[in-house]
Write a structure and sequence with these properties.
Blueprint (H helix, E strand, L loop, with lengths): L4 H7 L5 H4 L19 E7 L5 E6 L7 E5 L3 E6 L2 E2 L5 E2 L18 E6 L3 H4 L1 E7 L5 E8 L6 E12 L11 E3 L5 E5 L21 E5 L24 E4 L6 E4 L6 E5 L5 E7 L13 E2 L2 E2 L17 E4 L6 E6 L12 E5 L4 E8 L2 E9 L4 E6 L5 E5 L4 E6 L3
Length: about 400
């Protein structure tokens, strides 16, 4: 799919294409504390993937990385060696649209390994089923550590999707050991069903569940537990399409890259362990009032983004990570994120009480995801087929 230029045009969803991909746009100055990008480069680790969209470690002490493709295949990467056969292939479970050559936001979207994977062999996937609905399922590794058991799939949660876009996709275990799930608003421009501000639907939300139960249980300290007007799984709301989010491995703070509508892309934030935030969509787009809601919202209770950029600079944010590796000490504490449409990459740091970001690199890649390995080193996924690692520039 990534070989078809028309996909990029479709993806812009009628955004001003020339502006969103304008490489001559006035650059955002880098804030104090961000290292000179000339000292770094993205080194190719593996290539030849078919529309890859994510990479995670199993955190089992083997240093292996697991990459997945939108078409339902997962692959093991050991150093620079890629497994000959898929670790898992769920191609028969996902919608035909993924394979038909047009743009699709469906497919295998997220993967997370259980914190005790080395002991229990469990991992979790977020995919669109053949009807286009969101499915969260648990799988188990087979007796061969390089291959999952395809018959072990157990569905934990299913969510009806009214439209084929804005599915979210990220799965991640937080520092509390619970599984966090990113779900978009259900699709179509301007959140026509007003799901973002509706606590009676899981759409447009970040969910938090305890998977150490069958099929799962809701943690007692989730912010909306006990309310008749809210789903108890909800951890945060007011999100349009939280395709990628991450936890800072040092502080536990949460960073969400929420894909915007026509004008703004944003990074949302929550301190470690703090839930219940309303990030504003669709009453707000970024830091700006957008759609008046039928039921008025309390603006004083909104949590506005810590970072945003306009569609002069890009059109679809890919949330990233705070760098916490050891190989690049000057990068410690820098948040790296990018744009799918034009490959621009931003770097942000917190100066005082304010997060400040600026354009860090022009990669020319189609950035679908970032990832970090067991050691905290940073990786990038290019939808055109490559996986890269951030390293010191070679002189």
């Amino acid at each position: 799919m990534h070989r078809r230029i028309l996909l990029i045009i479709t993806f812009l969803f009628m955004v001003n294409i020339a502006a969103a991909q304008d490489a001559t746009a006035e650059p955002m100055p880098l804030p104090e504390g961000v290292p000179d990008p000339a000292g770094y480069e993205w080194a190719l680790v593996a290539d030849g993937f078919d529309s890859p969209i994510g990479i995670v470690p199993a955190n089992d002490g083997t240093s292996r990385m697991f990459a997945w493709e939108q078409n339902g295949k997962m692959w093991v990467i050991n150093g620079e060696e890629v497994s000959f056969e898929p670790f898992l292939d769920i191609g028969d479970l996902i919608p035909p649209s993924v394979f038909q050559g047009g743009y699709s936001e469906q497919g295998l979207l997220g993967v997370a390994f259980h914190p005790q994977y080395a002991e229990n062999g469990y991992f979790y996937i977020h995919y669109s089923d053949v009807n286009g609905d969101t499915t969260i399922a648990r799988y188990k590794v087979s007796s061969d550590p390089e291959v999952a058991d395809p018959a072990s799939g157990t569905i934990l949660l299913s969510v009806d999707q009214p439209y084929p876009d804005h599915n979210g996709g990220q799965l991640a275990f937080g520092p509390d050991g619970y599984l966090y799930i990113g779900l978009g608003d259900g699709g179509n421009p301007d959140d026509p069903l007003r799901n973002g501000q509706n606590l009676n639907t899981l759409l447009g939300k970040l969910l938090r569940i305890d998977v150490n139960a069958t099929p799962y249980k809701v943690p007692a300290d989730n912010p909306f537990v006990g309310r008749s007007d809210a789903k108890p799984e909800i951890w945060a709301y007011g999100l349009r399409n939280p395709f990628r989010f991450s936890f800072d491995r040092e502080t536990g703070d949460l960073f969400i890259g929420d894909v915007g509508q026509w004008d703004y892309e944003e990074v949302d934030f929550a301190p470690a362990g703090v839930g219940g935030q309303n990030y504003g969509w669709s009453a707000y787009q970024g830091m700006h009032e957008y759609i008046k809601q039928t039921k008025p919202i309390d603006d004083s209770r909104l949590t506005l983004p810590i970072l945003e950029y306009t569609h002069v600079y890009g059109c679809s944010i890919t949330g990233g990570y705070i760098y916490r590796g050891e190989a690049l000490p000057d990068m410690n504490g820098v948040y790296i994120y990018g744009d799918y449409c034009n490959g621009r990459m931003w770097a942000a740091v917190k100066n005082g009480d304010v997060w400040q970001g600026g354009v860090w690199m022009e990669t020319g890649l189609t950035i679908t995801s970032f990832g970090e390995d067991e050691s905290g080193e940073l990786y990038l996924i290019d939808y055109k087929g490559g996986i890269y690692k951030l390293v010191a520039a070679q002189s």
